[in-house]
Amino acid sequence: MTEAAINLTDPVELAPVAFLELELTNRCQLACTHCYSGAGPAEGHGSMTVTDWKRLLDEAPSAGVETVQLIGGEPTMLPDFLPLAWYALSVGLQVQVYSNLYRVTEPQWGLYTQPRVTLATSYYSDVAAEHDKITGRDGSHARTRANIVRALELGIPLKVSVVDLGDPGQRAQEAHAEMTELGVPRVGPIDRMRAVGRATAAMSMESVTSELCGQCGDGRAAVSWDGDVRMCVLSRFLPSAGNVRTAPLASILSGETWAELLGQVPRKVGRDCNPASDGNDCAPAETICESNALILPTIPAALPARRSGDQ
């Protein structure tokens, strides 16, 4: 084991997992050229059942988890998205939803306006044609922008991530300025894509640990649509630490495989990490955000939580 790897597993440096990314599905209305998971309209929902997800949500608080992020793919495309989100709230978890905001139903707006729910999305250009080319879906710019505006009108805690794909002609700076002028309270520094998933082809390189931000597994973990546990959604090219369908989350996070994986990630000790692709990297240092989505300060568990039947 290298000296760097020894430093990586120092328990003083790495926080216990309190933030858990749940990849509910790999289906998405869009087919972004840089998608970390290769999501798209023809992809599936995975093998995790509603029962599996609920069992995991039941286990999460006792494993130290305070916030779950519902991500995908596009998480709202899972038929049971809303029941699972309400269930997470009912067991005392905070919920953040990372959505492309291509389509938002009234019941979904009802969820997003709850006090322990936050929202995030990605934006690529202030020019519709350029944004739509990146997402692979005509009309996606108009829909996403309109729903950003509505979220602001409803007072929903929102973060927008602007992603630069490395094309000299992309109007990423202009997109960032547009979101700021719209009044989005949290627009992170312009992110860059990393060589994970579909982006490996776009960047003509393989996935390597140096492409990670250095915060994988540090206070966070991810569970895929098949139940595999990883340090974050971007570290999917590394082995799984275990599967929540066959082992409790807490035992996986305290296991040897998890500790070994933590030792493979180069840590940027004493430096701010660099935000990465659209929704799955570390947070800008000046905010209390993770994964390009907003985490509010912990709200007392005594706050009444609404169940799916209360929508």
Would you tell me the structural class of the helices and strands? Answer: alpha/beta
- Proportion of strand residues: 5-15%
Radius of gyration: 18 Å
Number of helices: 10
Query: What form results from the Cα inertia axes?
Result: globular
Task: Determine the N-to-C terminus distance.
Answer: 52 Å
Order of helices and strands: HEHEHEHEHHEHEEHEEHHEE
Mean pLDDT score, rounded?
A: 82
Largest sheet: 9 strands, mixed
Please name the defining characteristics of this protein:
iron-sulfur, nine-stranded mixed beta sheet, 311 residues, metal-binding, 27% helix, disordered C terminus, alpha/beta, globular, single chain, Radical_SAM_PqqE_MftC-like, disordered N terminus, S-adenosyl-L-methionine, rSAM
Topology:
Layout (H helix, E strand, L loop, with lengths): L2 H6 L10 E5 L26 H10 L7 E5 L9 H10 L3 E5 L7 H7 L4 E7 L4 H8 L4 H14 L4 E7 L7 H11 L3 E2 L3 E2 L6 H5 L16 E4 L5 E2 L18 H5 L2 H7 L26 E2 L2 E2 L17
Parallel strand pairs: 1-2, 1-8, 2-3, 3-4, 4-5, 5-6, 5-7
Antiparallel strand pairs: 8-9, 10-11
Q: How would you explain this protein's 3D organization?
A:
- The protein is of the alpha/beta class and 311 residues long.
- It is built from ten helices and eleven strands.
- The strands form two sheets. Strands 1, 2, 3, 4, 5, 6, 7, 8 and 9 form a nine-stranded mixed sheet that branches. Strands 10-11 form a two-stranded antiparallel ribbon.
- Helix 7 links the parallel strand 5 (158-164) and strand 6 (186-187).
- The radius of gyration is 18 Å and the shape is globular.
- It starts with a helix and ends in a 17-residue tail after the last strand.
- Keywords: Iron, Iron-sulfur, Metal-binding, S-adenosyl-L-methionine.
